[in-house]
Specification:
This protein has 255 residues and is α/β, with parallel strands linked by helices. It folds into two domains: 165 residues, P-loop containing nucleotide triphosphate hydrolases (Rossmann fold), CATH 3.40.50; 76 residues, no CATH class. Helix content is 40%, strand content 23%. The chain contains ten helices and ten strands. The strands form two sheets. A six-stranded mixed β-sheet has the order 6-7-8-3-9-10, with helices on both faces. Strands 2-1-4-5 form a four-stranded antiparallel β-sheet, with helices on one face. Strand 1 and strand 2 form a beta hairpin. Helix 3 crosses helix 5. Bound molecules: adenosine-5'-triphosphate and magnesium ion (MG). The site of adenosine-5'-triphosphate has 12 residues, from strand 2 and helix 1.
């Protein structure tokens, strides 16, 4: 479904990614782990079109993505969440989901004026879909609360619901359980597994190894911009190169 081939990214003199080759097959959950600063978020930024790689190629569902704009990538069926939550804090939880769906809505402003019935039908569908997502993530009770006033765990779940509102085929999650307690993390893992059953492919960046073991079919390990290991969660856990990368890093020895 998603194929990255030889992706490299430099920022000035810093090589953030070197020759990264990775694929996310249809309906699979693929993990991406690695110490802080390894280049994980940089890779998701490239897939979602926020930045363009120095070299390498990306294909998604058979289509070549070359300097493709983020909104076009959304329309092709790729959605993401952010490591630092990016909700509209002043808007309610429900409004955040409605707005996100407009990113790929079909009724234009002209439709709204000239073809009012079609527009109203789409609006109704948007609300129904948003309410379904809120319910799914246990957020129905906070639908009318401003996103910025929600507890942190709710904001994380709303961030995922917002990504799903665009009806993606591939979902990119950047540390979805950051700040969650073990019970919340486990419950979110179950939600992620349900998304795979719904036919969505997922690439998930995570420091929490319990979540990686709970949900991932396969895992890539990134260290200093390079893939140093790839396999099942158990395989990468036993790989000496992975153990070395984590023990060699001061701030992540516990991961
Ligand atoms: N826009 C940018 N300009 C310059 N350097 C950048 C930029 N974005 C990232 N970097 C650098 O690239 C490297 C990889 O950063 P990245 O955010 O991808 O790491 P990460 O694996 O997501 O880390 P973390 O686990 O801390 O989130 C870091 O050295 C970072 O400082
Ligand atoms: Mg990151």
């Amino acid at each position: 479904m998603l194929e990255l081939n030889g992706i490299s990214q430099s920022f000035g003199g810093l090589k953030a990614l070197s020759d990264v080759t990775l694929s996310v097959p249809e309906q699979r959950i693929v993990g991406l782990i690695g110490p802080n600063g390894a280049g994980k978020t940089t890779l998701i930024n490239i897939i979602s079109g926020l930045s363009h790689p120095t070299s390498g190629s990306i294909t998604f569902a058979g289509e070549h993505l070359h300097r493709t704009a983020p909104h076009h990538i959304t329309r092709l069926g790729i959605a993401r969440t952010y490591q630092n939550i990016r909700l509209f804090g002043d808007m309610t939880a429900l409004q955040n989901l409605i707005i996100a769906q407009h990113a790929r809505g079909h009724a234009s402003l002209l439709d709204a004026v000239v073809f009012a019935p079609r527009y109203r039908r789409e609006e109704r569908d948007l609300y129904q879909h948003a309410e379904m997502l809120l319910e799914r993530f246990g957020l129905s009770g906070v639908a009318q609360i401003a996103a910025g006033n929600l507890p942190y765990g709710d904001q994380r779940r709303l961030e995922i619901a917002r990504a799903l509102a665009t009806r993606p085929k591939l979902l990119l999650l950047d540390e979805p359980t950051a700040g969650m307690n073990p019970a919340e993390t486990r419950a979110l893992g179950e939600q992620i597994l349900r998304l795979r059953e719904d036919g969505i492919a997922i690439l998930v960046i995570e420091h929490d190894m319990s979540l990686i073991h709970q949900v991932c079919d396969e895992v890539y390990v990134l260290n200093f911009g390079q893939i140093i290991s790839h396999g099942t969660p158990n395989e990468i856990k036993a790989d000496p190169a992975v153990i070395e990368a984590y023990l060699g890093s001061d701030d992540d020895a516990s991961a």
